[in-house]
Amino acid sequence: MGKGRTYGQLMNIVKNNPDIAVYSLTEREMDFVELLFERETGKSRHGSGSWISTGFYSLVLAFHLCDEIHMYGMVSPQHCQNPQTADNDTIPFHYYDPNGLDECTMYKSQEYKMMGGHRYITEKEVFQKWKERRNITFHYPSW
C-alpha cells in the first residue's frame, strides 16, 4: 500500500497507541477488490472511469475479519430511485458538511460521471446481492 500522508498519520497513531488495531489492504488485495468489482458489476473500474468507494473496500475487508456484519447508515440501491424518497432527501452525503450535497444528489451525480466518479448505486446493487449470500444485516435504514 502507498506510503501517503494518511498512511503516515495512521502509523503515527498506532505507534502512540499500541492498543489500537489498524487494518489496511495490501496492493495485492486492492487489485483483488478491483477484480471483484469487475466480476460483480461487469464493469472495469478503469474502463468505466470510476473509483471504488471506501465502503466497498471496507465491506470486503470485513468479509475477511467478521463472521457477521452489521451496516448502519447505508441506504438501499432503490432509495434514490423512488421519486418520493429522492425528492425529499435532505440527508447530507457527508455528515460533517450539512451544507453540501444531499445523499441522492451525490449518488446520481457520481453514478453517471464519465470519468472519476464513484458508482455508489452500482456498488449498493452488489451489496444487495451479497446480502443474500453472506451474513450482512443493514440497519437504520434497514433493507
Automatic annotation (TrEMBL):
Location of the protein in the cell: Golgi apparatus membrane
Family that this chain belongs to: Belongs to the glycosyltransferase 29 family.
Protein name: Alpha-N-acetylgalactosaminide alpha-2,6-sialyltransferase 5-like
Segment of the intact protein contained: 206 to 348 of 348
